[in-house]
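As a warm-up, study this chain.
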Amino acid sequence: MKRLLFTIISAMIAISSHAQFVSSFSSSYVNEVKSKQAELSPNTKRILKQEGLWADRIDEALGTLYQHNCEKKLQDIVAKRKEFKLIAAIDKQEFSENTEAANAIIAENKIMHFNQSEVNSILNYTLDQKNILALALKDEENAYQDGIRYFSSLNNTGVSGKIFFPFRNPDQAKAYFFGKDLQEHLKLVQDVMIQRNFDGSNSLNSELISAIVPIPSIPIKLSIGSTITQVDEKKIDSTNIGKNKLPYGGLFNATFTYPLVFTTINTGKEGHLLRIYLPMEYKFNIDEVKDNQPMANSYSFSELSSMAFFSIDLVRSDKSLSKMNLFLGLKGSYYFGNEKFADRIGRRDFSLLQFNTGIKIADKFTIGFNIPLKSNYNSLLESQAASIALKFQPGI
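Now compare it with the structure written out below.
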């Protein structure tokens, strides 16, 4: 119990100190905004202001919101430019015959960003007028692209991410963990992982619910998951089963994650993106839950960990999307549990160093290996097996 209290107090002190640093770090944000605004063209600023995507004083939350709004408007303007080209090919006489015919032509060409009146006006434009509109649409597309780059450069979680403390508000954390939709406060079944231990046991792990805890300056990701293990108890004793489940959690597990460091670096002529990620995690696990059994009498343990994680893109489709990347990770964990945990494992607390590597494909499929390297509990290394895992992320 003393070790648990000491661990929790140490974590709280570290997070508190980190929050104070983030506060002072954020005070230089205004100067950073001013310097980067000078890089934007007057035309880009004009269009962003017209669309309500501009403010002389931009904080982190507003910068993140503007970035995602630019991304949505960019999708719309790209679609609009395609439709404009389709409209130019429509027969003017046929379109203007009657309302029913016009509606049929609009539906046939899947024109959604121009109404019937606008289509009719475009068809009656002179060539110079059409060219002016085409240039205006192109300027608007360029402005949104510039806006995305600008706001992304202020938002440390993007392709232009900088080192140190990316999450200063919950919106940034939601964007990083859950993607581009800021309406996503939580995710259901964020990933499913099938794991095969080299001792013959199999595990199925799923992150069932993920959410961002909206704590100012230190937003934390909370994940609730479950791990089911299938073993041949005639070949593997209960002690080794317990040891091999340590990296993947119990039947019920809750994880709190906060990135201490995140950065991205463009490397080489092809601009391969190198990501460096250092999270701090606390994971609580319960296993062997039985009916009418008090929670205090169940098998439970906790893991306090940190990982140095590196990934580099091997194949990219554009500046922001990775088709395939290689990752390496070195994870240090401190495990501690209740009496049942100590009886099963042989010790109440110990440390473990693990090595992870693998390949992630299309930001959706991951093939990884986990190898235990070192522990202050020698018996753990002698019995714990390396494992291979396949992870699928249906929510992406």
